[in-house]
Design brief:
Radius of gyration: 22 Å
Order of helices and strands: EHEEHEEHEHEHHHHHH
CATH architecture of the largest domain: 3-Layer(aba) Sandwich
Strand order of the largest sheet: 2-1-3-4-5-6-7
Shape: elongated
CATH superfamily of the largest domain: NAD(P)-binding Rossmann-like Domain
Structural class: alpha/beta
Largest sheet: 7 strands, mixed
CATH topology of the largest domain: Rossmann fold
Distance between the termini: 67 Å
Amino acid sequence: MPSGELSAPLVRIIGAGRAGTSFHTALSTRGWTVDLMGRDTHPEEAAVGVDLLLICVPDGAVAQVSAAVRPVAATVVAHCAGSLGLDVLSGHARVGSVHPLVALPSASVGARRLVGAWFGVAGDPLVRRVVSALDGRAVEVPDEHRARYHAAAVVASNHVVALLGQAERIAAGAGVPLAAYLDLARGSVDNVAELGPAAALTGPVARGDWATVRRHLDALPAEERPAYEALADEAARLAGRRRPDR
């Protein structure tokens, strides 16, 4: 090891679900020594003998798991829950959080996506070493903004998926497969990345073509109209327009 270079921290992960196994695989391939234990394993001594204990369990279980771990003064105890602050880790001297802004559907896919990802971080500097090891980008998110930060993540991920589910249902009524629309969706995300949301907006609302919006609403099944109208309102807000029927 070159002089002055830090050795890789020893890590233990509690939680063998998608997040835990993704971190385990990703950090292991980066030369870190990582021990993975299931959340049902007795965690009392989990902080012993490691530099970082990363709790990767559902948000509602983080505080309970953290409280079951005997504090070790030198060990950083961190979680990867986007919506939670550091208060759920009370009782431990060194705490942190490292939340990846990517979906982790499996260990193999998740491990690939963690490399180069954005991470919301807080607390002990050791969590930034996790991000650096994965060639990621860190953004500091203080406790008072965690819920808002995570809400934005849900909108950017889960709500987009829900909207594509609606697109699939509506398109099916016209005999068109969802696949025909996916390049359109990808292009829209690329446009937002390049131009920003307001400049990337196209379509009838951006043009002020309210007759087309009305035609869409008349053609949609009743159960699909509320979501369409809500997003048309948001598109109008983004475009600085006002729907005339509002």
